[in-house]
Batch of 4 targets.
Target 1
Amino acid sequence: LAEPGCAFADPAAIGPGEWGDVAASEGGFVAAVLHADEAGETLITFRLDPAGGSAPLTERRLDHPVPPARRGAGPIVDAARVAWVDAERGLHVAPLQGGDPAPVGQPASLRFTPALVSGGGARAIAWTDDSGTPMRVRARRLGADGRPTGAAADLTPSGGGGAAPVAHGEGLVFLDPRAAMSVAHRASVGPQGFGEAAVARPVGLVTAPPRIAAIGDPPGLLAFTAVGAAATTAVGLVPLEGATPAQPIVRGTGYGTLHVDADGRLLVADAPLDRPPESPRELHVHAVGADGALGEATVIRGPDGHARRGRIASSGELVAVLFEAAGRVYVSL
């Protein structure tokens, strides 16, 4: 496993897959990988040890598989559970090591990864409902057993929209994506439910669909996919309070969707290697200072020289980056 600022080991293949996620767990990391084939979709969870080995925990054949062309986001995992959206736009959550999945709610978007909040005493799951205009962010609390409890809450601000929720401390951050100036919102999560969403700050012109990641302890910073020069896709970084202009993480040199993820003060972002929307990507990993200063990028590529859809997790000085390349999911430790 690599320390922040150090080179990562050569990527190790976990197995076939198009989407995945990684999270810190006791003694190492856990991962979830989603793979589509002619017969449907399979969701496999793994334990990753500090020496770089992987061992399967559970394997689930999804009852309602999503055709690859329709799926625009993958599963989400934390130290105890995994969640995913199926073809009927139903959101499900299940224990990492066996146990039946529990339905959370629907409709859930296939374009946005759900969010799991597990900081402190807060446990919740949030998702994007894009069945109408504007889109909305909905959430449910999770009990001590990890199963949904209580009714779903609509966190969308009055008169606005909501999309792309991500966990941040003991709460959530999400966007109200607008045609011109999009706005970031916060919502707290507590034992009794959810606080009213409050404006964090304007962030500017974001891509459709937007990708975001919250960095550091609240108030923290926000990485987001922005519309760059000549309508290219860029990744920007702003403090989650005030009105400081965005600084670039990935400059707008290509088109198409870029992915960004963060854990603690580490972030990973797709960076295009050419201009066309489907051109190959590589991953840029940065440490981010409390003042928003970016450390030098560490570049990660798979065996074929490409990498995309990066996800990152840190545990003390240990770091894991999971990504997809050529139909397989890899992890760099």
Target 2
Amino acid sequence: ALALGDLPRARAHLDAAWAAGARDGALAWSRARLYGRLFFEAQERDRLTRGRAQSSPETEALRREAMAMLAAVGDAADRDAVEAEMALYGGRLDDGLAAVERRLAARPASWSAHLTAARLHRAAAADADRRSDYAAATGELGAARVAASAAVEIARSSPDGWLELCRAAFQEAVAEQLTLYRGSSPAAAIARTACASAAEVAPWSTPAAALRAAVVLLELRRLPDLDAVDRLAREAVAELDGLLRGDADEVLVRGLRAYLRQVAVERRMEAAGESEHLPGLLEDRRALAATEPGNAVAWARYCQALAFAAGTALSRVAPDSESRLAALIEALDE
């Protein structure tokens, strides 16, 4: 289940074995890999749905569990592989890359080493971006894409390699957007293909669908044809509709639907036009705010959606939006 990317099933089995008292290194290594992947997915979910730059306490708990399992592996796994993972979760990126290089020197065809290298390079790119060293960030993202591509070539049937390639290319596409406001994006095309491949080998994967939606968001901002923008947003929303299962990922799915609809609305507003996506945007933003009453970001985004309707000709789509906005601002002030 872990190799196929079915993390809920893998978690149920591995946690049950650990709870039953099993403490061998192989089990610890499997749980370390599982919780590492859960951590990265939760971190991505935090960023996409709640606007958090830092991990939530729940996400941080996943990281700590991965670290604890790595410490318990012993001789059950290659030491360089374990050191690379520990360095990744501990923020010691240079140490992690050095361990990966040793691992690849000994085993050039190690799929997991290439995958870890891609994650380390993406983390290094994020660090460089925070320092405003954009040239270094670009170089790290290119290295991440190369490492993820190598992992894909070794194991094309694994969704993890495709997802990591999509993440690396997506981040490159975001960087490209700073200089290419309109037009095609080579990195976005790579990300789109990688997400489609991940969805093909793991059709149940919410992360694959979420990443594809994120790539579509970039395309919505680039496309010059507003009818194409509306059509692409409509298709992406319909794809996400199938993932609304009332589970822990509902906030993620609704958040992405709202982002897609918001960009489509904004593009129409740029041309002083009306958008078919505004009613759905209001619905999603209101539902997200109600789901997390204490989340100020969610309420602010709901206010923004109401302002779109109240302050433009779109107000006839939601004629009570002005009064709803005023009431909401008054409640927030209290």
Target 3
Amino acid sequence: KVVLPKGIYRISCAETVDLPGGLTVDLNGSTLKLNGFAGEKAVPVRMLDVADSVLRNGVFEGNLYEFDYAHCKARNPEHVGALEILGDTRRFGVENIEFRYLVSHAFSMGISPPPWYYPDAHIQKFVETTVTNNRKRVDHVWTPDGEGRFKSPFVALGGAASNRYISVAKLMGYQGMLTKSWYFGITFFDAAKKPIRSETGYQYHRIALPKGAAYFRVSVEEMDALQAEKCGLRAYMLRTPSHGVIRNCTLNRCRTCGSSNPLGWNFLFENLEFHHCGDESCRCAYDAEDGWDGQQNHAFRNIRTHDNPNGNFTICCSHDFVFEDCDFS
């Protein structure tokens, strides 16, 4: 545990402090103040690929009233924030923090900087392409699997067999349901292609890999085999944060939004207050980033929003959000 002497600390806009894993940083009532500048991105503090990091008891103060808007290339800079939680960050906590006067947002959680995937992740389009005499041919390798369903060929896990999980969905960007149903069937096989386990999956949600799995096949609902081949499903495992708690925090005058979280799963947001957030760009207090279906299993408990000029919560996608004792006024 590290306890800062109470004071005001000026933070460089050009450097980022990376919090290590297994450490609690107690700001002890101190204020971390971002210097004024004209750039498009600044991240004073970051949790990246760490576990058991906690930040508590202090103030993040941005440069909302000192920012050089006239010389910034972006009309509404969206990446001048206070805290980023990225990559394979697990079991983290942010507690008793006031975020105020931010040009962009207070905190954001999502995909890591490249490499985006686990080091040995396997990405596979479920279609086979061969080249003969300089001509590319797509082999129709999906087969019927009952009425209205079609099964992929065997897909080798390769290095991804050492991962704990796998997801089957569209890889990045604006996502959504790629077949006629969110649900699909998946069967795992050993190295001899003998079945190990079958289960029902849900696009973008993680599936635990069974021990000894070397191959898998998916079964989807589609119009025909050609549509199944063209659906664009991939198997992958992104490096995104999970199992975090943000509790007892105030977000005051964050220009873009209070928080924008494209990706992550199993978060608890508790006792948060959003005040006058979202003047520009995202234009809301909390932005569940549209098009990212990787936001999953979020619990919002005792959330208070007031005086936000354009809106409170924007939820264009995301899966399994639960709200308890919230006041969106």
Target 4
Amino acid sequence: DPLENSPIPLPENFLSLQKAQSLQSVLDSIIDFTYSSPADSTPLTRWTYHYNSAGQFETLYTYNWNSSSNEWENSLFIEYTYNDNGDFILVMLYAWDSASEQWVTNSKSEYDYDEMGNLTLLASYFWDQGLSLWIGNFKSESEYDENGNTIQEIQFSWDDEINDWVNDLLYENMYDLNGYLVETGQSDWIEGQWIPDYKVVYEINLNGDPDSSFFYNWNSGEWEVSQKQIFTYNDQNLLVQSLTYHWTVNNVWLFDIKRELEYDDNGNRTLDAYFLWNGFNWDGYQKSEIEYDDNGYVILYIYSVWDNLGMDWEYYSRLEQENTASGNIIWFDYSTW
């Protein structure tokens, strides 16, 4: 979803704002600063948010700071359109043209839903000013079962020769009688037909969590196993370890990756560490250490990497932030060692 990957910050409660009927307070602006000195910072970017009468997020304007004139200058304008159910169906993005001093069409995203509100279509386009045409960027169409589980997704790529979408990738999912995912796979569109690429098969325990998964590749008309994962959970059914193996030409499983996780008393993840098998022992690879405030929101995130020379963890980056009681970020500070 281009919204999820957008460089433009959205309100923390954006998804709930879409369908809000009454709001007492909502985010109206964000200003981003670049660090100049311990006593001063320079404005960099500004975002202003606007809502319609139903409390739905409607428009967003972004501005860049002009340090010469000490003024905010127009940058981007985004407009959201909703259906009767409060789901957005069109997102239009415009860029400011300083020469003509007008907003110029840049890109758009279109959405459609089934009767149950499941997203069935996502298509994004860029506007070609020279050709006066919409050029496709990404498109997917999805189907669901009666429980709302995705059973199929087709992704398309844009063919510049015919100016239209063509098949690219097919994802298919299978579920057991309890609605748990037991198999997922991908096929590629090759010479007018879907050719299998890979699939993952899960073994589900009584709690509905996967005890193991097996990864298969399609090779010369047959499925060949190449990788497996074994999962371990604590008494709260939280994942505490996963072991990844690869299948060798000698038909034996060998270690690849180990992941270890820890949690606080509230079930918040406090440690997430990865290790690589060197043939004899586990070497560290990367880990994250996380702390939370009393409301369960992250206040400290430390990322470390393994130093092969010192044979120990080495700090890499640190993110510290303060949140409101509802989880909106008040301030944050990011630094690297």
